[in-house]
Amino acid sequence: MRVKKNTIKVWDEVWSDVGLDTEDISILEVERATIRWSRIKTRLSKEFGNLKNLKVIEIGSGIGTYAALLASEGAKSTLLDYSPKALKRAKEFFKNNKLKAEYVLGDALDFPQQIKKNGIAIIIVPNKYNPPYRIYKFISEFFGTWKFGEEYPYSRKELKDICINSNHELISIFASC
User: Fold this and answer.
1) Distance of alpha carbon 61 from alpha carbon 107, whole angstroms
2) Which of 49, 72, 77, 118 would bridge 67 by S-S if both were Cys, CB 3.0 to 4.6 A apart?
């Protein structure tokens, strides 16, 4: 089974899915209750003290769940995605949660140019060593139900190397495995 090439069209289709859960307030509250968010918030608070006015950009944001959580803590959030429909959906998501953000239509692979001085980038990618994800992706690709185009999981080391090679300071890498 050949996976669709990653294109704006692929991601526009993902964000146009009428079956997509549009319960925006509950999406945010469910994620707020996760251990993952607790760890992210604790680490950022330890590193920066107060999250108020912290400049953050969520790269390849989709609806921008983490940018929204940070905005709810007072951060100044920017969302970067190359799918116009993802950004349209993100604007609805933020409006429904009574939050503000900036929205940038751009390529996640060109992210170093989007990071502002004294800001923080949030990059959420699949973990290369997460067996449930790898099995799910393999089965979905095999049966032709994988709708996310090319999606490449990364290891902690690979993410660290990307950060170092782009001359950005690495603060933390959170992973499920």
Assistant:
1) 11
2) 77
